[in-house]
Inverse folding.
């Protein structure tokens, strides 16, 4: 599902939703690529704030997934592919 607005704040909010919906590290890799593309097209004056916030959300989600997998004792996923 895509955002209908082209306003940077709306796109940022949509990307936050994409990040929160990720269930695997591969999905997080794709979300990270989305963040980089978004940053590339932003005005650098305020784009850095969006970028830093989204990257922190990605990191938090990644560590949450890793912790969840470790607690379940699942080791089938390669966690070194993102970062």
């Amino acid at each position: 599902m895509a955002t209908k607005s082209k306003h940077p704040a709306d796109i940022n909010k949509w990307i936050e939703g994409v990040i929160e919906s990720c269930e695997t590290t591969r999905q997080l890799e794709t979300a990270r690529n989305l963040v980089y593309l978004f940053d590339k097209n932003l005005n650098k004056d305020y784009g850095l704030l969006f970028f830093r916030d989204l990257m922190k959300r990605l990191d938090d989600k990644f560590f949450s997934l890793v912790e969840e997998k470790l607690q379940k004792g699942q080791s089938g996923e390669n966690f070194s592919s993102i970062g």
In short: The mean pLDDT is 85. Residues 24-66 form one domain. The helical segments are 8-21, 25-40, 44-72.
